[in-house]
């Protein structure tokens, strides 16, 4: 399987975004005469000519373009002036709120290329995740800014807080550091809550305006819960998750069993006599995947990627299935996992535990003596794991001759290295970021912080999961020529060129050049920066900002490929215990292994959008729990001096990431002896006389002034020598 030339990625735009992109292209090329086919090629889009012609007709009616010969259009010169004038005017859009650490927010608008910045004072009572209508100011050369006109749909349905009784009324102020909401409770909604109780409140009615009066009822009372567990529960609720499952879901789980009948095993490929093992973190209980290994009679190597057969138990439209879809993902906090599926399934029946038979959905690959892929098979199976490795144990076996399964792991690792090398040779980007872990005492207080290291044992599992995901997506995409089968793809769009351009200018000041001429050259530049980041903390911070210029990977039925991995087709097949996307993929793949099967694309796309949103919420919850423990750890080190790196900037000061703990704190500008002003682009601050500057990635010594676990904020001051 030789190296292939990368195909140019194309994408399909929504009607609003299509119209916007065509308008921008005509403005940038005011003298060009273009038809729908030429526009499709220039914009690198897959929208058909009917959709493009419809957009052109709309622009023609608005006098933005005018028709010329041969079905071509050109920019209307009179419109060009009005469009430029309108760039400073206000337009109305709909989007969702994503708050940032300063209290302000970005509004994510699907039809706009860039998120809209809204200062805190202009949020008009909108909270994190709300769907809002905004007015936006477009000023040439600046990022769009706006203000919330009205809230269309609230995202927050529950809050956690202390119940306060006031005469015949009750009040609960949310414990959330993101959304400061006060809920009023009538006496018949107390649900036996007493003054001072920690409670979960269900919001029943929202008021209007910037300071709405909110009404709700007490849903649950936490009678004996310590601060640590209370905070973890609060983080779950404020991100839209729950540690409890509905009674009907648990009831559906009761009759499920691991005693398989001959009928259930019929038609499954039997791997129980083939060496099989799992490699997972030491704390894991939900074993999604296992690896099998055998040498075939012709000397080739067969490696099986066996994935828990969740769909054997989770049937469509059951209460269990509906709850799994609603959650869409497991949530991993510092000290716990809130599983997508109830424990009986996630940790027992579906988990590929050692020394028991388990049902699986397998992707089996054959490699020749040069470790090149020569064959593949997909299908339902039954396996028997011979051993459960932790990553550390597997690494020791790889490194130690004579250790358990050393020769087998060594061979699998060699194949993984070939897969990895091919991936990067073909243009994949090495996204490496520090994973912070904590040592927790018996009282759950953090006694230590460390950055998790990644070795071959981690990466070989990752490489085979990537292979399985890629090949499953390829199989479906090529199965029915001319009429694609609606499928759940994991897609990753090209970077935001405007953001990259801003970053490139700053990186040039630091002596790091980025080549933005083509997507492949951008990927090469990212990899050079990634290599530098392994040795340089400043480059590591810049890598974080470079990653932020990238589009977010999401689920979609419209396959535009995965830019970061440089795969033309990619999906998620390997973790159905913790991702609902994989459950959908298993169902579609199973049916298409037997015959051609298509589902409703619009309905599937709606599910993709929901799953992507839930994934972002789960990631936010994980980050919140890490931040909480970082602040809790730093709380015991107030007054101490740490080395740090400048990791962010805004109007009031700079953020510094402490090198040892990766905790991030704010150094207000008024803590410096000199007066600093933030420069455009937010990558540098300079003194009024221009003699001193602070740049992103600069090393700084700081003293901890305060650490507040309630707000999860750390304040620092510079130690100026």
Structure description:
The structure is a single chain. By secondary structure, this protein is an alpha+beta fold. Among the domains are: 15-86, Winged helix-like DNA-binding domain superfamily/Winged helix DNA-binding domain (Arc Repressor Mutant, subunit A), CATH 1.10.10; 90-153, Nucleic acid-binding proteins (OB fold (Dihydrolipoamide Acetyltransferase, E2P)), CATH 2.40.50.140; 158-224, OB fold (Dihydrolipoamide Acetyltransferase, E2P), CATH 2.40.50.140; 460-629, no CATH class; 638-718, Beta Barrel (OB fold (Dihydrolipoamide Acetyltransferase, E2P)), CATH 2.40.50. Helices cover 31% and strands 27% of the residues. Strands 13-20-19-16-15-14-21 form a 7-stranded mixed beta sheet. A 5-stranded antiparallel beta sheet has the order 5-4-3-6-7, with no helix packed on it. It starts with 14 loop residues before the first helix and ends with a strand.
Specify the helix fraction band.
25-40%
Shape: globular
The structural class is: alpha+beta
Radius of gyration: 27 Å
- Trace the largest sheet across and list its strands: 13-20-19-16-15-14-21
Low-confidence stretches: 1-9, 85-89
What share of residues are in beta strands? Answer: 25-35%
Count helical runs.
17
The main pleated sheet reads as: 7 strands, mixed
The residue-averaged pLDDT reads 88
Q: Report how far the terminal alpha carbons are from each other.
A: 59 Å
Q: Total strand count, please?
A: 33
């Amino acid at each position: 399987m030789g190296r292939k030339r990368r195909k140019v990625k194309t994408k399909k735009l929504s009607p609003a975004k299509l119209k916007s992109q065509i308008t921008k292209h005509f403005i940038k090329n005011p003298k060009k005469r273009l038809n729908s086919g030429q526009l499709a090629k220039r914009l690198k889009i897959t929208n058909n000519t009917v959709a493009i012609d419809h957009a052109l007709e709309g622009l023609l009616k608005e006098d933005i373009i005018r028709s010329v010969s041969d079905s071509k259009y050109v920019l209307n010169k009179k419109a060009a002036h009005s469009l430029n004038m309108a760039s400073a005017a206000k337009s109305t859009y709909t989007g969702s709120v994503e708050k940032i650490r300063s209290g302000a927010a970005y509004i994510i608008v699907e039809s706009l290329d860039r998120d809209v910045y809204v200062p805190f004072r202009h949020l008009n009572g909108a909270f994190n995740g709300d769907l809002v209508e905004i007015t936006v100011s477009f000023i040439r050369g600046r990022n769009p800014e706006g203000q919330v006109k009205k809230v269309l749909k609230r995202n927050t349905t529950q809050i956690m807080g202390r119940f306060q009784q006031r005469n015949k009324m009750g009040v609960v102020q949310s414990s959330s550091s993101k959304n400061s909401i006060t809920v009023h409770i009538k006496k018949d909604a107390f649900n036996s809550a007493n003054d001072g109780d920690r409670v979960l409140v269900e919001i029943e009615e929202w008021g209007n305006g910037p300071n709405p009066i909110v009404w709700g009822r007490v849903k649950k009372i936490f009678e004996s819960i310590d601060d640590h567990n209370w905070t973890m529960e609060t983080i779950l609720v404020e991100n839209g998750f729950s540690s409890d499952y509905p009674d009907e879901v648990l009831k559906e789980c009761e009759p499920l069993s691991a005693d398989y009948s001959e009928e259930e095993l019929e038609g499954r490929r039997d791997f129980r006599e083939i060496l099989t093992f799992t490699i997972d973190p030491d704390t894991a209980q939900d074993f999604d995947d296992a690896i099998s290994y055998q040498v075939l009679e012709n000397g080739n190597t067969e490696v099986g990627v066996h994935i828990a057969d969740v769909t054997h138990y989770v049937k469509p439209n059951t209460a269990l299935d509906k709850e799994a879809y609603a959650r869409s993902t497991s949530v991993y906090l510092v000290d716990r996992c809130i599983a997508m599926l109830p424990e009986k399934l996630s940790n027992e029946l579906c988990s590929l535990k050692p020394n028991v038979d388990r049902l699986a959905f397998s992707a089996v690959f054959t490699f020749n003596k040069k470790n090149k892929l020569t064959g593949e098979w997909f299908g339902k199976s039954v396996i028997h794991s011979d051993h459960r490795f932790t990553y550390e144990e597997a690494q020791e076996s790889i490194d130690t001759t004579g250790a358990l399964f050393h020769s087998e792991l060594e061979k699998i690792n060699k194949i993984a290295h070939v897969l990895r090398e091919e991936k990067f040779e073909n243009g994949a980007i090495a996204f490496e970021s520090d994973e912070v872990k904590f040592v927790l005492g018996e009282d759950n207080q953090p006694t230590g912080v460390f950055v998790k290291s990644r070795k071959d044992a981690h990466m070989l599992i990752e490489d085979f999961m990537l292979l399985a995901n890629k090949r499953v997506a390829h199989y479906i995409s090529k199965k029915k020529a001319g009429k694609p089968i609606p499928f759940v793809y994991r897609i990753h769009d090209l970077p935001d060129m405007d953001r990259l351009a801003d970053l490139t200018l700053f990186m040039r000041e630091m002596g790091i050049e980025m080549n933005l001429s083509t997507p492949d050259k951008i990927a090469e530049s990212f990899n050079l920066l990634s290599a530098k980041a392994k040795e340089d903390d400043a480059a590591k911070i810049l890598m974080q900002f470079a990653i932020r210029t990238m589009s977010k990977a999401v689920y979609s039925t419209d396959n535009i490929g995965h830019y970061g991995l440089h795969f033309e087709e990619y999906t998620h097949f390997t973790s159905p215990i913790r991702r609902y996307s994989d459950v959908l993929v298993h169902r579609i793949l199973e049916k298409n292994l037997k015959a051609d099967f298509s589902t409703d694309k619009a309905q599937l796309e709606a599910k993709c959008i929901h799953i992507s949103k839930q994934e972002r919420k789960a990631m936010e919850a994980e980050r919140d729990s890490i931040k909480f423990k970082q602040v809790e750890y730093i709380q015991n080190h107030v007054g101490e001096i740490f080395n740090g790196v400048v990791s962010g900037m805004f109007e009031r000061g700079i953020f510094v990431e402490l090198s040892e703990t990766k905790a991030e704190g704010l150094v207000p500008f008024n803590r410096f002896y000199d007066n600093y002003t933030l420069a455009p682009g937010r990558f540098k601050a300079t003194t009024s006389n221009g003699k001193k500057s602070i740049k992103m990635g600069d090393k700084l010594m700081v003293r901890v002034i305060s650490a507040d676990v309630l707000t999860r904020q750390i304040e620092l001051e510079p130690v100026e020598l």
